[in-house]
Amino acid sequence: MTTFVDRVELHVAAGSGGHGCASVHREKFKPLGGPDGGNGGRGGDVLLVVDQSITTLLDYHHKPHRSATNGKPGEGGNRSGKDGQDLILPVPDGTVVLDKAGNVLADLVGHGTSYVAAEGGRGGLGNAALASARRKAPGFALLGVPGGLQEIVLELKTVADVALVGYPSAGKSSLISVLSAAKPKIADYPFTTLVPNLGVVTAGETVYTIADVPGLIPGASQGKGLGLEFLRHVERCSVLVHVLDTATLESERDPVTDLDIIEEELKQYGGLGNRPRIVVLNKIDVPDGKDLAEMVRPDLEARGYRVFEVSAVAHMGLKELSFALAEMVGQARAAKPKEEATRIVIRPKAVDDAGFTVVQEEDGLFRVRGEKPERWVRQTDFNNDEAVGYLADRLNRLGVEAELMKAGARSGDGVAIGPEENAVVFDWEPTVMAGAEMLGRRGEDHRLEAPRPAAQRRRDKEAERDEAEKEYNDFKPF
Ligand SMILES: Nc1nc2c(ncn2[C@@H]2O[C@H](COP(=O)(O)OP(=O)(O)OP(=O)(O)O)[C@@H](O)[C@H]2O)c(=O)[nH]1
Ligand SMILES: [Mg+2]
């Protein structure tokens, strides 16, 4: 027997970027032919993609850890490393992606709709790409950025047009079995249905889907019976059908009271108030049932419901019901804003990659947060002084040094770049870190140098632009 899994926790790891390569071209009689280290490849993304042939999340229940492959490192001779491969995880139509706190990250509807669950890390630039007019032979390369790690929750909401709600044993599954080709389990004990059943109904030209929900009882909103948990499956439906039992032997029940109780539970759940509803009085093959149905019908109609008397067992009144539902579904579809185009790619909330913040924390530590400075730190090989110097230049250009100074940082103060659990901490040395006040670019101290002639300034500007451009190229648009 297969278990129906409609909620799974998934751990996804994108691929890390490959490291850039630091290499120097060698040729006979030309021992130092310039830098030729290639760039590292980008790590693969992990994508969730709606595939209509998939109907459960079972696979992820069995294998909740998934990862994409890493980018390959760059090599000498200007050879770039290969990009890692994206990992595509097929999910059923109607899968909702949440974070562990329960916030909805994406709602995946429509074949081909995809969601980037974890982003591959960028590859590091090789020293060939890092070379510029000013830095002719960089003796370092950038490291690849680690791939994103995410813990997400997938929830499946059945995408049905019509939802059947009602007490246990009212005959919801029986109705699905006679309206469609689906063969759900039917039995005379309550809570036969433990997970929703889905059937496809054809009525004339219209094809629609119909789902039942495990039986509801008074107090379901407080968790009685199977609770209201399964109502999330009907949140997408466009028509609600109250299936009322006209032949129940329980003395305190009758169709109108049942309807009131179920309505109250739906109200507690919320969000379904605006769905059109109809009433089905089932089991009219039972003589007492037929009498009761006729008795309550005027009352229900007076409340504005369209009422259908049927028997799932004796196949009475079904055609009328299924055509009425087809008509309502048709109306709902016509009223809906045009189906969103499929193949939408949903990205996690865009990171703000422009800014950064500097905050002094209680213990005196200055913390720098921002997409760029944090990534740059991860790209830095701290065993290589030149690489550290390059990082300092980048931070300086972004204005981090100036902000630190503004925030009151002094030489020797502790500075952390990145979040608490993953920060690079160092003692701030404005002179080493190319202090904004005293130093210009790495290696020049304008206190010692004469003002730069115009040609030099132009060359410097060009070099700066080169670097900005590389930074931009490195950022592969998705
Ligand atoms: N006489 C009669 N019995 C019916 C009719 N429809 C369903 N039943 C019986 O009622 C019982 C419950 O039917 P189900 O279809 O399993 O009811 P359900 O609403 O899906 O119940 P849960 O899954 O427990 O919520 C079964 O014994 C059915 O045979 C009907 O039209 N007439
Ligand atoms: Mg059932």
Automatic annotation (TrEMBL):
Q: Which residues form the OCT domain?
A: 348-430
Where does this protein hold Mg(2+)?
173, 193
List residues binding GTP: 166-173, 191-195, 212-215, 282-285, 311-313
Recorded superkingdom: Bacteria
Give the Enzyme Commission number.
3.6.5.-
Q: Which keywords label this protein?
A: Cytoplasm, GTP-binding, Hydrolase, Magnesium, Metal-binding, Nucleotide-binding
Any one biological process term the GO annotation gives: ribosome biogenesis
What CDD domains does the database record attribute to this sequence? Obg
Q: What is the annotated localization of this protein?
A: Cytoplasm
Pfam families for this protein: DUF1967, GTP1_OBG, MMR_HSR1
- Biased-composition ranges, Basic and acidic residues, are 439-450, 457-478
The cross-references to Gene3D superfamilies, in alphabetical order and at most eight, read: GTP-binding protein OBG, C-terminal domain, GTP1/OBG domain, P-loop containing nucleotide triphosphate hydrolases
Entry protein name: GTPase Obg
Lineage from the top down?
Bacteria, Bacillati, Actinomycetota, Actinomycetes, Kitasatosporales
Q: Which gene encodes it?
A: obgE
